[in-house]
What we know:
The chain has 369 residues and is of the alpha/beta class. It is built from 12 helices and 16 strands. It folds into 2 domains: 3-76 and 186-244 and 315-368, Rossmann fold (3-Layer(aba) Sandwich), CATH 3.40.50; 83-168, no CATH class. The chain has helices at residues 11-22, 63-70, 97-104, 109-120, 131-139, 141-156, 195-201, 219-225, 235-238, 318-332, 341-344, 351-367, and strands at residues 3-7, 26-30, 42-45, 48-51, 58-60, 83-86, 89-92, 186-188, 207-210, 228-231, 248-258, 268-271, 280-283, 295-304, 313-314, 337-339. The longest helix is centred in the C-terminal third of the chain and has 17 residues, at 351-367. Its cofactor is FAD.
Amino acid sequence: MTTYLIVGSGLFGSVFADQMAKNGHRVTVLEKRNHIAGNIYTEEVNGIQVHKYGAHIFHTSNKKIWDYINQFATFNRFTNTPMAFSKGRLYNLPFNMHTFHSLWGVKTPEEAKAKIAEQTKDYEERNPNNLEEQALSLVGKDIYEALIKEYTEKQWGKPCTELPAFIIKRLPIRFTFDNNYFNDLYQGIPIGGYTQIVEKMLAHPNIEIELMTDFLGNKKEWLEKFDRVVYTGMIDEFYDYCFGELEYRSLDFVHEQLPYGNYQGNAVVNYIDKDIPYTRIIEHKHFESGNQPQTIITKEYPKEWQKGEEPFYPVNDQKNQKIYDKYMSLAKNEPQVVFGGRLGMYRYFDMHQVIEEALNLSSKMLSST
Ligand code: FAD
Ligand code: UDP
């Protein structure tokens, strides 16, 4: 039996804890917040599951991951079909025939392809160096200006010419009338929210949980007490920023309860224009088709990350990657500690990727003990 300290009760730490506990190891989970589940935490308010840290839609094409998560909740058949509000008009996302029709009046895939080809021809041969070039080469100027540029600059707080190209590749482009945001085979929302999933993962007699406890407040003592440590907080903070700060993007979530049955008719509406300070409004009841007389919405305001703020997004550009590599060179010489999750690995992971990474790490560690 090995003793494990897991720092962080988010999805990574909880999947890892579940696996180790089931295999007979003793696990302590430390969490500095006053609740478990990290950023997938949901809370019931007047019968509505509120996603406290932004909309979380589960999607994967990996059957193993889908079967794994379905042990802990029943998923509904929610399909993410966000809308985008730009300069007084609403468009369908991801970019598809509805979007092309609203923008240009085109009615067939052939007409839409011709329009995009005309706008992307100058960029075809070039290897995109940044997000702006990537967007212009994929969808052309009209879509870039109507639906990407201002949203992206607001979200990341930098010009699109200074952002990595991969961010925009998350958005599909389709020549069909399909508004499904994700291309994955499996998608849904856990009926009753995400917190129950983490509760069940951590409900093993071999697991102890300590809330409101910051590992870094007593780093030396914690390291002495346990055989192995899995750290899912910020890797630069763990090393006291000795190679400088990694860059993150933070967010403010402003929740409002309103006396309407239906505020915006959709779970997610994006706001593109730069003079609107938030990027999205989430109406939570639409994740689970609620028929409550009132509604709860959340506005998502992007903001600069500073020490003490929640680091919601890693900024995976080359400058930060170099800093991260330096921290990893320290981590490689520290066999007691392994870094996991969005912050420990400094990667823009979705939930299914976090689960996959945690399952891989646990099976590697189980086979070596
Ligand atoms: P976290 O959830 O951040 O957990 C880390 C935990 O460690 C936190 O609870 C933190 O408090 C704790 N911690 C950190 N440092 C310490 C310390 N020193 N001591 C003690 N505790 C510590 N993914 C999807 O698949 N679909 C979506 O629709 C989706 N939407 C998203 C929307 C937003 C706004 C954001 C920010 C993310 C979204 N994601 C989505 C991604 C998803 O949230 C992550 O993949 C997942 O939650 C990461 O889990 P994690 O355990 O790595 O990190
Ligand atoms: N994006 C955009 N317009 C939109 C929605 C997204 O330009 O209406 C871009 C933006 O750069 C964003 C990226 O696509 O950072 C990924 O967006 P998504 O909503 O998929 O990611 P999330 O913020 O949920 O991780």
